[in-house]
Specification:
Strand content: under 5%
CATH class of the largest domain: Mainly Alpha
CATH topology of the largest domain: MetI-like fold
Number of strands: 0
CATH architecture of the largest domain: Orthogonal Bundle
Radius of gyration: 26 Å
Number of helices: 11
Order of helices and strands: HHHHHHHHHHH
């Protein structure tokens, strides 16, 4: 075999196929862009560029007086507390629902087909998880602000309900995708649902369950800031107040703090996933 025959081809042999699929995707995306009135070119129009420049110009100088920084530190801590408490409550809801809704933990399913009552209960739990996660936490926050008033309580409850649905769904999928042999063995020998979970499923899937939980905690910190814009307290509510008062220096300072908070949450999340993996 000559050296010339081993030389890499000068042209991608699949370029025509790739070009076809790129064009096909663009054709599919075109009606979506029309439906959403997506017009990114308006961002570079002279009038809009002038407004953007004026808005960004209000960000300087940054606000850094002692009273303001003390308030930002307090609300940042409140934001982290809101996210952490919300995820903790979500776990309290999600874990029991996961145990009930996971097919591999059903004794009646060992024969291949679940009994009528366990199947109905399992489907009811699945639909409950769908309802919880299909309502965005922002909508839950709007509801709870009316019920319990302004403040972090509304944010905690909103995160708890939405994230309970997300955690319960993913937990069930993780548990059902694993090897069920040890779980079935325990159930056939008289173990209950909880014992089979603790001694078979949990040890085999602990790393994946923990990784997803920590990731959701990181997402909850970002969500808690957004919830502040509807009166759920924390850093987001103070950011909303400063924007309404056209205080660009305070807005810029809080945005920087928020970026640092998200970066720290990301690093903490990565560290925990590595340590527990």
């Amino acid at each position: 075999m000559t050296t010339a025959s081993l030389r890499a081809p000068d042209r991608d042999p699949a370029w025509l196929q790739r070009l076809f699929w790129i064009g096909f995707v663009l054709v599919l995306l075109w009606p979506l862009g029309v439906a959403t009135e997506f017009k990114p070119w308006v961002l570079v129009e002279p009038k809009n560029l002038k407004i953007t420049g004026q808005f960004l110009g209000t960000f300087f100088p940054l606000a850094y007086d002692a009273e303001f920084l003390h308030m930002v530190a307090r609300e940042t801590w409140r934001t982290v507390a809101m996210a952490t408490t919300g995820v903790a409550l979500a776990l309290v809801l999600a874990i029991p629902l996961t145990l009930v809704g996971t097919r591999v933990l059903s004794v009646s399913a060992l024969s291949g087909r679940m009994a009528v009552l366990p199947a109905v209960v399992r489907h009811a739990v699945r639909w409950l998880l769908i309802v919880l996660r299909s309502v965005p936490e922002l909508v839950w926050a709007l509801v709870f602000v009316r019920v319990v008033g302004l403040g972090p309580t509304a944010g905690v409850l909103a995160i708890a309900l939405t994230y309970a649905g997300m955690l319960g769904k993913v937990y069930s999928e993780i548990l059902e995708s694993g090897e069920p042999h040890a779980t079935h063995t325990l159930l056939r020998n008289g173990s209950g649902r909880l014992q089979a979970f603790l001694y078979a499923l949990l040890p085999a899937n602990a790393a994946e369950l923990t990784s997803y939980t920590v990731y959701r905690w990181e997402c909850a910190i970002r969500s808690s800031v957004v919830l502040g814009f509807v009166g759920a307290g924390g850093l987001g509510q103070q950011l909303d107040n400063s924007m309404k008062m056209f205080n660009g220096g305070e807005v810029a300072s809080m945005l920087l703090v928020f970026m640092v908070l998200v970066a720290l949450a990301d690093r903490t999340s990565a560290y925990l996933r590595k340590a527990l993996g």
